[in-house]
Amino acid sequence: MKAMLRAALAALAISISSAALAVTNPNFPGVVCETIQVPMRDGTLLATDKYSPAGGGRHPVIMLRNPYGHLIGSGCFNGLGASIAPFAQHGYYALAQECRGTDRAQGPFREMVQEAQDGQDAIQWAGTQSWSTGKVGTTSGSYLGLTQWQPAIHTPPHLAAINPQITASDYHDNWQYVNGVFDLWFGMSWPALAFVGDQIQRFGRASQWPPGQADTVEGQWNANVNANLATKWVWQLPLTGFDQFTTMAPYFYDWVDHPFYDAFWAALDVETRYRDVKVPALNTTAWYDIFQVGAFKNYQGMRTSAGTMAARAGTKLYVGAYGHAGDSGKPTFGSDAALLPIDTLVAYYDRYLKGIDNGWEETPNVKMYVLVPPDTGNAGSGFYVTGASYPLPGSETVSLYLASHGHANTSNGDGKLVGAAPEDSSPDRFAYDPANPAPTTGGNMCCNGVLLANGAQDQGKVELRNDVLVYTTAALPHDVAVIGPVEVTLWARSSAPDTDFTAKLVDVHLDGNSHNVLDRVVRASLRAGSKLPPSNIEPGEAYEYTIPVGNAGTIFKKGHHIRLEISSSNFPHYARNLNTGENSTWTSDTAVAHQTILHDEGHPSRLMIFVAPGVHAP
Prior knowledge:
Rossmann fold; Jelly Rolls; 3 domains; 23 strands; 21% helix; globular; disordered N terminus
């Protein structure tokens, strides 16, 4: 019975396809587009724009699966179709498919959890059509990278190569949470910006609203977001009491109802499944991308643990400047537009979808756009480096140790970064009040940069807060190329049974301006790792915390200073720790935590960086 149903649905899709209107576009000569309906195993039809090469014939398939049709446009040669249509000029069929429950696709939208099964069905369908050679590749980024990894970890037989861009690996640790701390701004701004408007339009069509009513309701929603997201919504305690998403984005409550790594997150986790991915991955990310930690993990995990030798050898990593943060920061770093040109992608797919021996495996494994900040003003630049591995071969680890006489509070304090653990160094203290958290000032963030600036931003104001400890090197005698993972080891005491510690790497310019390079957070109760159960600390006891801050690719120029900021909040990027030992998901009680940062021979708090010798700004 199931086989008969699938055959009937396939016949239905073919009949719809044959009746679809084929269109062309002068910007894409030789390409014909038609919108077809592709059936999933349960009969749900997903709208798919199919771009065909002139003359038809049998060719490999390159596919993207997109939930953002209403937000960025859909239909032939529109939205992301313009990014995939050029593949048809290079001898591929290109498919731009809408995800279940979004824009023109049928079904309810079950964010994230639906993409493994639907992705497998889409790949199977594309690989078995009469016009397909049976080889399917996938492309695009962010959620569209998730729609590639989720089927890939289930080893669909027709999948031949993936190109996940600016996307993550463990959707608990570096998507909805960061080291176990809820990514509050992303968790609220992403569905508010990207999905709710689409659901309003779909509801309006289903309810047969009169013309224009859905647009009016969507406009009211957007006004509500702009008025309240930054001023009211992010302050909501407990998170389970936030009611704006109950109808149009109910998956928000799946995220907050699973604050710790459990079976819900394990089912989505890519990091535990690299052995099941038997095709290469061309990964791209960016230094200021919200998902850069996961992208680096995907590259390294695939190079060492992918399920075939070909998958390991063909996996590459390309790193740009901006990612989701965009180039609206201050400073900016020039253009990274040459990171992934169409000819690179065509060469990649030619190797694995057409079997052309074009030397892809011998090309550099890593291509990175290294950032060069300005000495004065906000106009920085950048340049590309390539290498066989990440970090670059020959890179050296350098540790810089925290030191002070007990007064590192603010940029006017006496905090220093020095080359050896200080023999005699007084601890630094500050009070962290969840009612008055340190404000987010730039960073690797998404979404809605209008309401909350992201990317590189000047840190001058936040560095004047008494609950921010500031440690700074002397002026650098020469350029220092910091390219690699950054880690902070922090010895600390707290008066609270649970609290957070934040670390921010900063570049101080010749004119005194300072911009954020990286930041990250650690939750005391998850100090052993966010995949492990939480365990509160003993107030007043000293603990060693390891904070993997992320990956840097920047030149600290001669005369600049390397700076490290330590605090306990970065809000509203990260949800506040309430210092009570209870999670903000379920409680609104707060307490002030009195924090002590230790840095002496017995407690060597330090910043660890990778320095790449021989890399210099042009």
